[in-house]
Amino acid sequence: MFKKGSSFLICSASEVNPLFVFVLVRNLFPTKESQTTKMATDYVPNSDRVNNFFNQLETRKSLLTTITQLNKTLTDHFASLDNSLSSKSQTLDTQIEAFDAQIKKTLESFENRENAIPERESTAAARIEEQKDAAIADIEEAAAAAAENRNGGGERSLSVFLRTCCRRVDSKGLIRFLLAKRKESVVLRADIAAAVVEECVDVMSFVLDALEEFVEMKVEGKVGMADRRWAVGILIQAVLPVVDGGGVANSVRERAAGVVEKWKGAMSGGGESGGGVGAGEAAMFLQAVAGFGLKDKFEEDYLMKLVLEHATRRDMAKVALALGFGDKIKGL
């Protein structure tokens, strides 16, 4: 019996459909599983909201990654600054210690020099007295030499005069003496070298003074240059082989370079060839280049050409060796 509307349906058991009964019972008494299925069907999520949610998560993830990288960069930067400051601090400490040591050393040097002043004063006074005695002796020896010359004196008076010129650094006086005593000067070559080396305060400047005067006169075209070239050649040949060119002061070497360059122009008329230059003057030129250490100031081909053009000169082989041309003149 079933109620339908306001009336009842009465049927027998054989007339009831089993499927109908099952559906009716399930609707009247729903199970938990069916309730869940119904809720899931009723609350289906919005896809746009889900996508927006995941986009926000991705944005925040990128932001977090950027902040992490920035933090690492800043940390590394500050660590590098700390190391740099530490290194510079250590360097400054080392420099301060070095400055302190240098200041201490300098103060000690000043103190030593100050303590040495009395001794240096006494030494200078003794040197002045010695020079005064030497000057008086020079005057007396010069007078004696003049007397010997008047009486036909010997080599001693010439040697004394040589040393006097060298002690006074009088290169012009020495050249005049060599020109006046040409015959005796040939004999006194060894004495000339000894006098210049032992008595001159600055040997190379002394020789350079004589050479510079000769070059100036040659450029001006004055007469009597053959005799003057011979006298200056005697001085150069006597002195420069005795002196090591490596010990020439830079200021003297630079001055000598200017003089020898001017000499080269006077010899060649401004050209590059050494043609027309006498063997004696060519040897003088090469000896001056070697003696003053000026080989690097001139072209090697020019110097070698002078050597080869005057290779028959007796002293040219020694000059070539002094210039470093030993391997190039083996066949000569």
Provide keyphrases for this structure.
disordered N terminus, 332 residues, mainly alpha, single chain
Give a structural overview.
The model is unreliable at 1-13 and 270-275 (pLDDT under 50). The protein contains 13 helices and 2 strands. It is mainly alpha-helical and 332 residues long. It is elongated.
Radius of gyration: 55 Å
Task: Encode the helix/strand succession as letters.
Answer: EEHHHHHHHHHHHHH
Strand content: under 5%
Number of alpha- plus pi-helical segments: 13
Q: Main beta sheet: strand number and arrangement?
A: 2 strands, antiparallel
Helix fraction bin: over 70%
For the biggest β-sheet, the strand order reads 1-2
Helical/strand content category: mainly alpha
N/C terminus separation: 154 Å
Write the layout of secondary structure elements.
Layout: E1 2-4, E2 7-9, H1 18-28, H2 32-42, H3 47-150, H4 155-167, H5 171-180, H6 182-187, H7 189-199, H8 203-220, H9 225-239, H10 250-268, H11 279-291, H12 300-309, H13 316-322
Antiparallel strand pairs: 1-2
Helix pairs in contact: 3-4, 4-7, 5-9, 7-9, 8-9, 8-10, 9-11, 11-12, 11-13
Task: Give a short summary of the structure.
The protein has 13 helices and two strands, in the order E-E-H-H-H-H-H-H-H-H-H-H-H-H-H.
